[in-house]
Amino acid sequence: MSQRMIRAYSPDITDLPHYSKRVKLAVPDTTNSKDNANDIQVTDSLIVNNSFGSYSSEFFKIQVTNLPSPLSYPEARRLIQEKLKLNAKKVKLADQPPSIFATFENAEMRDLALETVNGYTYRQKELVGKVANPTGNICGDPISGGKITSGVFTDAELEEKVLLSVAPYQNIPYQSQLERKRTDLVKIVKDIIRDIVNVNSSLKSASQSIKLEVPTPLESPKIDGYRNKAEFTIGKSPSGEKVVGYRGTAFKLGCVNVGSISKVKTLPYLIISTARDFESFVRYSRYHPYDPVTHSGLFRTLTIRQTIGQEIMAYLTITGGILSDDGLTELTNSMRSYFNSGHGHAISSCYIKSSECNGQKERNVPILVFGKPTITESLLGLKFQISPDAFFQVNTYCAETLYREIANLAELDSNTTLLDVCCGTGTIGISCLKIGSVGQVIGIELCHSAVQDAKLNAEINNYQDKCEFYCGRAEDLIDAAINMARFENLVAVVDPPRAGLASSVISVLRKSRKIKKIIFVACKLEASKPNFVSFARPRSKKFQGEIFVPTKLIPIDMFPHTSSVECIVLLKRLDKV
Fold it and tell me: Of residues 139, 423, 566, 567, which has the active-site annotation?
């Protein structure tokens, strides 16, 4: 850690305000009022008085409209952070009306952002910016219908809110969960088809109409304790104890305390037990958890991974710019001493990472505190090495079902090249080699450590002669990857992040005439709607090549006890529309 990025830490700073200029908020008297919290107006001269503290970047928010269409979240974020060079705390993309919401540290930065945005031309659109109100429940209890409340919960009440937040279906019979998810999917699919037809009227004809059946999601082989990864917040309970757990709701909705995870059925016992071990360490340590109100404190989050073979990887994130080099060494030494002296289950791999400071361009690299660099997961009789930042499906048991269905849809054979876009650690391509005969796998992934894992995984499973993995942006590498394909039959599999594919990736896939079939894996189908619309837009300068339309949907219950469902969508190219 460079000296430029650090300052000495003093435990006493926990009680000091981070900002010299505090935001002021007018809080209406709601005793006899039906006013919604969305009516709260931000000013610089009124005083906030609530149990959550007086700072949130929500108080310094702008709304950007008159945006070009289509616009994906990654593009919106690049517009704000890179093209406009605005140091936003948060960036969100809204559909109705199309808007970008960005929050800032203070009024000065917000006002400077407005000056920069207004009049700026992006993709032939002159952007319009204005001040936006904070999220409605910033000072209230989100469960209470938007009213301003004290927000003070007991430990037991917050534990119940945690369940509602992270496992809302866990007290519903499993078959009823599946039916609820199918009902939700039916509505989402109708919306997708409607939007596709609206942008491409030629698909309204009977011969070209889109027919997409919605079956009941395939069941997860394991319903309770299925998660192999969990990300926890380190904070304080309502009673003031240091806790490793979940917030009942997001901080922007008014929740600053952290609740217990002991009743969450999605978590296996070993992950809960390891979280409790770290909770004991945090209480033992002289350092404090991070406080989102005062922006002080050291311990932020804890990520725990567990394999079927019961290996554990723990990944602790601390606030950047607080510890000196000597302070970091002291902390890592105390972690080794604590966890290697018999406290709790043996941890196979333990990392620590500092969060990035404001204005920092390069991401900090995790530091191995003790143990192995990676852990090994078993899947379909294969072995996969997993590093701290690599993506791996959170339900290993259900991932086998997912990959079998992908292989079946792709109709692979020895004369097929599988192009695996957003390949992660190579699990889809290598699993397809195991399930059926594939001539060649070419994987593309942005995360460097995941690409290294993918190459190692191919070698471990003796598929190195059939696999090639490359690190970079998909839109920059797809053309070259297609030119490397050794077989005429070319099938693309895309497993993008929750925000979906960038429009530039869709443009390249559409332009690539060799690709006739795309297997699209969506962890949130509704969020992928703009992608399906872009695949089906009429030919244009931006979207060359014939369109792709969804022809089959296979939902898989990757996330029991939640409202989420993984979906595989088969997209086929229509040569004539």
Answer: 566
